[in-house]
Design brief:
By secondary structure, the protein is α+β, with helices and mostly antiparallel strands. It has three helices and nine strands. The radius of gyration is 33 Å and the shape is elongated.
């Protein structure tokens, strides 16, 4: 039915154009009539080509996903550290972020008598992990008199580490991703600045 209607319209159009030969519409109708579909061999060839292209692209897609998870994890840790630092300064309450390898962390604050967890322990993506964190621990931290573990990044009310003997200029957190990529987050002890 569609082709018959199209043929009639093509004839009307041809008559209207008065001798200009076959109209574009007639050519379209003829090509629709002559088209009989694809053979099984043609379909199989197309599927094989698509399969090869997918096999070539799949590793690249997986690498991009792993790279993005690595970037997200690094940004998440940097945000948590910067938030802890700014909260310590703004509220005048010391804080630390406890790192529990391979991928867990938890922010803590001092409530005047003891350290209190601010949130539940958080986990990074399963494809990302960090190396054990070894920062300076305090058995009698100067501002609070409380213990600060060595696997925690500490921020006093000035936003940095207390200036004590044996304090390094900066400490690093190394994050490793699924594609062999490594990111390093540096915490500068005198200022508390967090950089990547």
């Amino acid at each position: 039915p569609f082709l018959q209607v199209a043929e009639k319209e093509a004839d009307i159009y041809t008559d209207a154009t008065r001798g200009y030969g076959l109209s574009v519409m007639k050519k379209v109708v003829r090509s629709l009539k002559d088209h009989r579909g694809m053979t099984l061999v043609e379909i199989l060839v197309v599927l094989a080509v698509v399969g090869v292209l997918f096999a070539i692209a799949a590793p690249s897609i997986n690498n991009q996903i792993a790279l993005q998870e690595m970037r997200n994890a690094t940004a998440e840790i940097v945000d948590v550290l910067r938030d802890a630092r700014s909260s310590a300064v703004d509220e005048g309450v010391p804080r630390y972020v406890l790192f529990d390898p391979p991928r867990s962390y938890q922010p803590w604050r001092y409530d005047g008598t003891a350290w209190v967890a601010e949130t539940a322990e958080q986990d990074l993506s399963a494809t990302v992990e960090f190396d054990p964190v070894n920062f300076k621990s305090y058995n009698d931290e100067p501002e609070t008199g409380a213990t600060v573990p060595g696997n925690a990044v500490y921020f006093d009310t000035r936003g940095g580490y207390p200036n004590t003997p044996g304090l390094a200029a900066n400490y690093s957190i190394t994050i490793r991703g699924g594609v062999g990529r490594v990111e390093t987050i540096t915490v500068h002890t005198s200022t508390g600045q967090v950089t990547t």
